Amino acid sequence: LKLQFLYFIGWMKRKHDEITEAPTTPVFLPLKVGSVLVLGRDDVEGGDMKVSRKQVEVSRRAECVWVHVLGQNMCKVEGQLRKKGWKGEGRDIWLDDVGEHKFLVVDADEDGEELSSRPLQPRSQPQPAARPFNPMKSMLWRLTSLHPSLTPPSANMGCVGFIELLAKPPSFILLSDYLIDPVWLTSALPYLKTPHSTQKVTILSCKKAGLKKQHDIPAHWKVHELSGLSAYGVHHSKFVIAKYNEGLRVVIHTANLLYGDVNCKTQGVWWQDFPRKKEGASTSVFETDLLDYVNHTQGDCRELERCLSQYDYSLATCRLIPSVPGRHQGLAMHKYGHMKVRAILNEEKCRTMLEERKEVCGERRFYAQFSSVGSVKEPWVKNDLCKSFRAGLEDLRLVWPTETEVGECMEGYDAGVSLPGNGKNVSGMIAAVGGIKKMLRWSGGGREMAMPHIKTFTLMEHSGDILVSALTSANFSSAAWGKLEKNGTQLTILHYELGVLFVPSLTPPAPQFMLPQGPPPPSYPYPPAFNSGRSLDRHPAGCCLIPLPFPTGPDEVPYTSGNTPWVCDKPVYETPDCLGRHGPTQGCRFGVVQD
Questions:
Q1: Are strands 239-243 and 364-369 parallel, antiparallel or unpaired?
Q2: CA distance 443 to 436
Q3: Helices in 83-205 by DSSP H: which ranges?
Q4: Which parts of the chain register pLDDT below 70?
Q5: Which of 257, 248, 254 is nearest to 286 (CA)?
Q6: Which of 196, 375, 398, 520 sits CB 3.0–4.6 Å from 524 for a disulfide?
Q7: Residue 509 CA to chain centroid, in angstroms?
Q8: For 174-214, how does the pLDDT look when each residue is reduced to its tens digit (9 = 90+)?
Q9: 171: Cβ–Cβ under 8 A, 6 or more apart, which residues?
């Protein structure tokens, strides 16, 4: 039976109280998926003043319960063991372990009427076996195709055209991005230009980009310009939601909506089609995360929320990783940024299993590949980002182009405008991760001619098996991923970001639903890898191993003494680029222009 409610019967005790028997009559507190309960003084018999009014926060997720300590003097009682619960501490309770943690699971119908129950399991009984952890053999996303006149055909093998995903006119479309060139966009998707062909067009853009100030915006576009938390915060999310009669297409990608970004740079894209909900279908975690993010981007989004709620996301192949500007505490701290990754991996019970796999399989790598560098320090890299991805600082490798690689690509130094890492931040990044030995070049993956604007964060075993992987708009900065403050009780995020996280339990054997027209979903088998020339390893479920667009494992290309990391703030570059220039051209904000 599918669990509809979970009832918490744990009791709170101050750390100096004697341990007594558990209450014989538990207090039932219903917890639907996505709901939150705050327990405190009013929930304790006698209303002890030493208990805070808001002592613990309990929230129900798809397969576990999150218990977060808000107040002081908290003690968790498990059997005859007393464990102090510090303020700000949080813990996932897995549903398989309900006995150990004093939970009672009850099945109930929609009206809350109890149908069946099972008692607490004694601690002496063996706990249910953990689910097997199978590393992923499919990345479930693709690289976007480069312009065919600018690159050899081999560079586009296994790729998909970004415009191809949106070629069919939808009845409603939401486009979110940092930079948008409306002239090029309407030429690539003509149905965006006239109001009669697409009923509604909504645009989310960064206020700093000044989209509303451009006079060539179609009059029927509804534009929302968003700002970050401070002067440094921006709206940087890159996604598309397109509604069709047959279903809904969600596209999450890494490209600005500019000709140069889509045609001349290496980008990544994930998409999935979702059918309409059947009667009585429940709300999925993917839907909850999507609606929560959309609610933060628009003032009045009730109409959009009603639209999105009509579709079934229960078979989503990934989890969303949103970043929303703010100083998040309590439960909200685990909904965004790198703490969202940490929470998802807790739900997957990955922490113990990843450690066990490291002992068995040996060395592994955490590859961080990005297109922009913020001001980062070692404590944030080690204790925030790496820890959330279940990696150590020693596992980390950064993929960042050299000055020579930028100069020799198809755009020359103009491509470097889309790689905004100034000298101070790049030097600080290298020092934070342990020196130049942790730096890898972009070359060797078959896309040397197209600089990366893609952002990937991947934990991989030496064998090439992917343990965890993220495709996101977030770069290597605490402003994008968030920074823990106040002894780990607050997560501060400056930017709007959106990405997708792939974990083993969500890897499907085949696509479940797709719209009648358009390219097949990215879980289909691929042609040979563009960067290896070898046939891809087959997975028993039919998926294939899709290499990252840069060399990994034994094929890594580390920096040498003659390599200089790319920095964007040099007034003049000594070596001319492939176009004979010593720096970016004036006003090349949009990169290479269309002929």
A1: unpaired
A2: 16
A3: 162-165, 182-188
A4: 1-36, 41-51, 55, 59-141, 149-150, 154, 158, 196-198, 215, 299-300, 348-362, 504-512, 517-547, 586-595
A5: 248
A6: 520
A7: 22
A8: 999 999 999 899 999 988 988 766 678 989 988 888 888 87
A9: 198, 199, 200, 243, 244, 245
Unique residue bearing structure tokens 């309770």: 93
Spell out where 184-316 has E strands.
200-206, 221-226, 239-243, 248-253, 268-274
* 170 DSSP assignment: P
CA–CA separation, 581 vs 154, rounded Å? 28
* Cα torsion 342, 346, 350, 354: sign: positive
69 in Cβ contact with 56 (< 8 Å):
yes
For residue 101, the model assigns a pLDDT of 36
Q: In this structure, are residues 32 and 5 in contact, taking their beta carbons and an 8 Å threshold?
A: yes
Q: Please give the C-alpha separations between residue 575 and each of 47, 407, 558, 572, 578, in angstroms, as whole numbers.
A: 74, 8, 21, 9, 10
3-state secondary structure of 459: strand
DSSP 248: E
Q: Which two tokens stand for residue 394?
A: 């020693």
Indicate the pairing of strand 239-243 with strand 172-176.
Answer: antiparallel
Using alpha carbons, select from 479, 477, 473 the residue that is nearest to residue 498.
473
CB-facing half-sphere around the CA of 311: CA atoms within 13 A: 28
| pTM recorded for the entire structure | 0.75
Measured distance CA(278)–CA(219) in Å, rounded? 37
Interval 103-133: pLDDT, tens: 322 222 333 333 233 332 333 333 333 334 4
Q: In 3D, which of 94, 87, 97, 88 has the Cα closest to residue 66?
A: 94
- Which uninterrupted H or E stretch holds 308? helix 302-308
396-399 and 364-369 beta bridge pairing: parallel
Sign of the C-alpha dihedral computed for residues 237, 239, 243 and 249 taken in this order: negative
The β-bridge relationship of strands 114-117 and 5-8 is: unpaired
**Cβ atoms 254, 248 nearer than 8 A:** no
* β-sheet bridge partners, residue 239: 176, 252
